[in-house]
Design a protein that fits this description.
globular, single chain, 38% helix, 24% strand, alpha/beta, 7-stranded mixed β-sheet, 172 residues, Rossmann fold, 7 strands, 7 helices
Length: 172
Amino acid sequence: MLTDSMLPKKFREFEKECLARNLPIVNRKRAEWLYNKVKEVKPRSILEIGTLNGYSGCILGSQGAKLTTIELETDKAEEARVTIVGDGVEVVKNLVKRKEKFDLVFLDFAQRRYIEILEECIKLVRKGGIVIADNILLPKCKEYLDAVKNHPKLKTEIIEISQGLSCSQMIR
């Protein structure tokens, strides 16, 4: 059931469309948290790994940041007008080789694979930047969750909304 929201109307309308199509998008409370976090930190560049049809990307890019998106499924990538089509793990490794930098990285793809790119994401994020992971309270994310909570380069907050989010800030 949809409730009144702090999200702008265009996002609420897109949300309804996605729900009608049974797409697995971030739920309303996590979407509101993301929207408010982006407004708070005002990132200039964002990397989204796992785009689906672009709902989260619209929220992430809502404040004018340059948004780079990665999606594996070609049909979803076309719908979302994804920047890069390919396997998130491989694409991230290539971005590290190219020495790309982002203010914010958002993980929302195969949860069991988050841990495979944690160190690469840390290399991609500028000092003070953040790595946000969705669905972090699912069992598939336990290893990743333990790693970000104990990583010496990160200060991590767990947002216990639905399946959860982690928000890890690069501190060194």
